[in-house]
Amino acid sequence: MRLLSFTLLLLSIALSSLAAPTEPTAEDPKTSIETVWYNVTKTIIHTVTEPSVAEKPACACPEEPVTNEEPTVLADAPAATLDKCTCEVSEACRKESLDSMDKCMDECDSTIEYGNSDKLEDYRKCFTKNSATVVESEKCLFEDMKDHCTTANTTETIEEATFEAPEYKSESGELKNNTVWKRHGEKYDNLQTFFHCTKNCIHKKLQECTANKKCALQLPKADEFAAKMIKCTKNSLKISNALLNTCTCLAWTNGVKELQGSCAVIGNSYYVNKA
Predict the structure, then answer these.
(1) In angstroms, rounded to a whole number, what is the distance separating the alpha carbons of residues 118 and 58?
(2) CB under 8 Å to 82, separation ≥6 — which residues?
(3) Domain of life, per the record (predicted)?
(4) How confident is the model at residue 60 (pLDDT cuts 50, 70, 90)?
(5) What is the pLDDT of residue 62?
């Protein structure tokens, strides 16, 4: 009996010497679901939560200054100014530019809407042999612009202008209801489109020449300039005859069928003056 009592006493001492588990604190890491024996009989379950992430501070960027100023608008560059050419320089440059007529006609081949494109060189000979269509109209044009140049003893500064004129437009108002013109007028207009293109090219050559002389010719505005060009194709027997010969050369010498039967109208001064 004493032996049993002694044994129970030793067992009781042994059990009391075991360290009792402590309750987990807030500092304990929460890395898993953990079962902890507390005072032998209690179970505490910890649920894992993600550690909070510190919020990024808001950007302290400087704000764009608010202004009521209007946007800056760049003004157009002023037109270049040059001395007005003397009439002597004008005459020399006009002659030089007219010498480029054949080259300019070559550049304007694309405006010819009839015939065979393989024969354009032959067609061009018809125009060059009857150059009065261009020469006489250019003479008329500059005689009409009396202030385009100045005398040798006078200096005048002007804005540099361009010779570029709008495309040719028929002004056949009086012939609008004319039966004959309805059949042939379009062919006349096509010839004049070619001549108009050639003259514009000659004018560019003229402007290059005067620019090299450090001067400019005084010109009207583009629309007015174009109207003067058209006006100078009229009221000239030399131009009418040159048109007739050009048309005949194309129609009969070179076989342009579209013009056959139209030359008597295209080169008739009555129709030319009203076209």
Answers:
(1) 78
(2) 157, 158, 160, 211, 214, 215, 216
(3) Eukaryota
(4) low
(5) 55
**What is the spatial order of strands in the sheet that 215-216 belongs to?**
157-159, 81-84, 215-216
Question: 7 lies in a domain?
Answer: no
pTM: 0.69
Inter-CA distances, 91 with 42, 143, 189, Å:
122, 11, 30
Angle, helix 237-248 to helix 179-212, in steps of 10 degrees? 110
Strands 81-84 and 215-216: parallel
How far apart are the C-alpha atoms of 195 and 168, rounded to whole Å?
9
Within a domain: 61: no
Characterize 80-106 residue by residue with b for buried, 16 or more Cβ atoms within 10 angstroms of its Cβ, and e for exposed. Answer: eebbbbbbebbeebbeebbebbeebbe
- Residue 47 domain flag: no
Q: How do strand 42-45 and strand 157-159 relate by DSSP bridges?
A: unpaired
Q: Give dist(CA 89, CA 201) in Å, integer.
A: 19
Q: For the chain, what is the domain count?
A: 1
What does the pLDDT average to over 103-122? 86
Report which DSSP code applies to 173: S
Coil/strand/helix, residue 228: helix
Distances (CA, A) of 223 to 43, 97, 149, 154, 163: 104, 22, 20, 29, 11
Which residues are CB-contacts of 80 (< 8 A; sequence separation ≥ 6)? Answer: 159, 160
At 173, give phi and psi (nearest 5°): -60, -45
Domain-located, residue 18: no
Residue 268 belongs to domain spanning: 81-274
Query: Alpha-carbon distance 172 to 189, whole Å?
Result: 10
Handedness of CA 133, 135, 138, 144 (dihedral sign): negative
Query: Can you tell me which residue has the tokens 């004008």?
Result: 90
- Cα 242 to the chain's mean position, in Å? 39
